[in-house]
């Protein structure tokens, strides 16, 4: 993950990367945190699922 982020920022010149995850997916949250990604907010009402 860190290698991919470095490639995107350093080689491709990007200044922001967007990623979404299920709020209940704690392992994904840990990966994002370890890669120094910052959670900026939540998208509400994007997907309509029968179990919430």
Automatic annotation (TrEMBL):
InterPro entries the record matches: Acyl_CoA_acyltransferase (IPR016181)
Domain of life: Bacteria
The name this protein goes by in its record: GNAT family protein
Organism: Nonomuraea corallina
Lineage: Bacteria, Bacillati, Actinomycetota, Actinomycetes, Streptosporangiales
């Amino acid at each position: 993950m860190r290698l991919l982020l470095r490639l995107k920022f350093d080689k491709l010149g990007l200044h922001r990367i967007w990623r979404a995850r299920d709020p209940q997916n704690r392992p994904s949250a840990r990966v994002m945190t370890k890669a120094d990604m910052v959670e900026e907010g939540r998208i509400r009402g994007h997907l309509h699922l029968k179990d919430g």
